[in-house]
Design goal:
17 helices; globular; Cytochrome p450; monooxygenase; iron ion binding; alpha+beta; oxidoreductase
């Protein structure tokens, strides 16, 4: 027996030593190469296991419905410093969770650049906003701002959006069985974004694009493992197919323009992107056009769908807020001149309370969990050093659910915005600085129009109100919100 106890003790000791060695490999490799001063001024943290770093801890926390557990482990071990070092998405990284630090990282273009992982660049394209230098980004944003987010453009899109929403809501209410509410909203927002970008193309093409885009989106936040069976592998194939389809559309439109055989129709976003010129007369090339479209499919479709779902659900779960939002919409309808038919673009500015509902939804739902930057040089923040080349993960969820920023942060309360003006860095659902999400105004417009019509004419009957929540790649009910949509008599009819 003594011999076997000895063997057991040796094995146990060997495993302990091996575990200790493996846990310190990243520390030696990434921290050990820094000079003495940098090593001792790094933020506190845990570099995790070789290659995977803290990714398993991150994925497990979000997969098993306790997303705060990931950051809480850092806070428990190292205190509430608001800045921690680790290895995430294959890169040495610093996570920032305090408003002042987050804002500085996002606003300081001299010391930080965009830092999304290479996998995201590969999927959305090297000429999307993610992969461009600061100067290239400013140029592309300047060229695309007016056609996509300008006041005139949004006024035009208003009609597209309204028609699609009214038609879809009517179809859902007539369905003979429950629907996956989120799935249908995703189809709706995809239909809207496609009508804006490619209004002249066939419904079959739109359906194919939606299928391929779903593959791409699913791999955006997955580990970059390019092997059959993994989400990233499928996402790359989805991107390849999307590029092929969109290139054929570009080629077809160029051919028709050269032959003078253009269709008589209002110009869509694809037309505008093909025509726009900078101050030197240079136009966007095909790759830029395609990558811009793919980027807006992500910003204007997926994020908008999830935010719209949660705004509807939060109101459904809080009847007092739902009633207040509904009364505002009814009052807007009462004030309309008799000659006006339907919601006007100008009326949207009158929706003060609904705007608060949307702001609160974006804060508490955290559709975008975080964003990435990369240090251009060694940066000193709060007495700590972020080494040049390290990624910086701006943790929006930590800011938006911080009780020091928002009392009772997990409580949905639109009224908190009545007199409340968030301090700089405490409210960033669309990011901040020069890289602010370019589709933010379009997204808010879609949400507002949807909620206007839903509140006036429909109600939600959720089949499983207690359905578990999934947090990756976006926060959503596990059952995609199985529900009946019922049309209700209008109080104004």
């Amino acid at each position: 027996m003594g011999f076997w106890w000895l063997v057991f003790a040796v094995l146990l000791g060997g495993l302990s030593v091996l575990s200790w060695l493996l846990k310190n490999v990243n520390e030696w490799f990434y921290v050990g190469r820094l000079d003495y001063q940098k090593q001792h001024s790094l933020p506190p943290g845990d570099m995790g296991w070789p290659l995977i770093g803290k990714m398993w801890s991150f994925l497990i926390s979000f997969k098993y419905h306790d997303p705060e557990a990931f950051i809480y482990t850092f806070i428990t071990r190292y205190g509430r410093t608001g800045i921690y070092r680790t290895l995430m998405f294959g890169s040495p990284s610093v996570i920032v969770t305090m408003p002042e630090t987050c804002r500085r990282v996002l606003m300081d273009d001299k010391q930080f650049k965009h830092g999304w992982p290479k996998s995201a660049h590969n999927l959305l394209g090297k000429k999307s906003f993610l992969g461009l230098t600061d100067e290239e980004h400013k140029r592309l944003r300047r060229l695309t701002a007016a056609p996509i987010n300008g006041h005139k453009a949004l006024a035009i899109y208003h009609d597209y959006i309204t028609d699609a929403i009214v038609t879809s809501l009517d179809e859902w209410a007539k369905a003979e069985k429950p629907i996956e509410f989120l799935t249908q909203i995703r189809k709706l927002t995809f239909k809207i974004i496609m009508s804006i970008f490619l209004s002249g193309e066939s419904a079959l093409l739109t359906e194919t694009l939606e299928e391929e885009y779903a593959k791409l989106n699913h791999g955006l936040r997955a580990m970059a493992i390019n092997l059959p069976g993994f989400a990233y592998y499928k996402a790359l194939k989805g991107r390849k197919n999307l590029v092929t389809i969109l290139q054929s559309v570009v080629d077809g439109r160029k051919k028709r323009k050269r032959s003078g055989d253009e269709l008589e129709k209002q110009k869509d976003m694809m037309d505008l992107l093909m025509e726009v010129e900078d101050e030197n007369g240079a136009k966007l090339d095909d790759e830029e056009i395609i990558d811009v479209i793919l980027m807006y499919l992500n910003a204007g479709h997926e994020s908008t769908a999830h935010a719209t779902l949660w705004a509807t659900l939060y109101l459904h779960r809080h009847p007092e807020y739902l009633q207040k939002a509904k009364e505002e919409q009814e009052e807007i309808v009462r004030r309309r001149p008799s000659s006006q038919k339907g919601l006007s673009f100008g009326e949207i500015r009158q929706m003060k309370y609904l705007s608060k509902v949307i702001d609160e939804t974006m804060r508490i739902a955290n559709i975008s969990l975080f964003t990435f930057r990369e240090a251009k040089t060694d940066v000193s923040i709060g007495g700590f050093t972020i080494p040049k080349g390290w990624k910086v993960i701006v943790w929006f969820r930590g800011v938006h659910l911080d009780p020091e920023c928002y009392p009772n942060p997990k409580e949905f309360d639109p009224s908190r915005w009545a007199e409340f003006k968030p301090k700089p860095g405490t409210y960033m659902p669309f990011g901040a600085g020069s890289r602010l999400c370019p589709g933010s105004d379009l997204s808010k417009l879609e949400m507002t129009i949807f909620l206007h019509h839903f509140l006036l004419n429909y109600e939600l009957e959720q089949l499983s109100p207690g359905s578990a929540v999934k947090y990756l790649p976006h926060t959503k009910p596990m059952d995609n919100c199985m529900a009946n949509i019922k049309k209700i008599p209008s109080a104004l009819s």
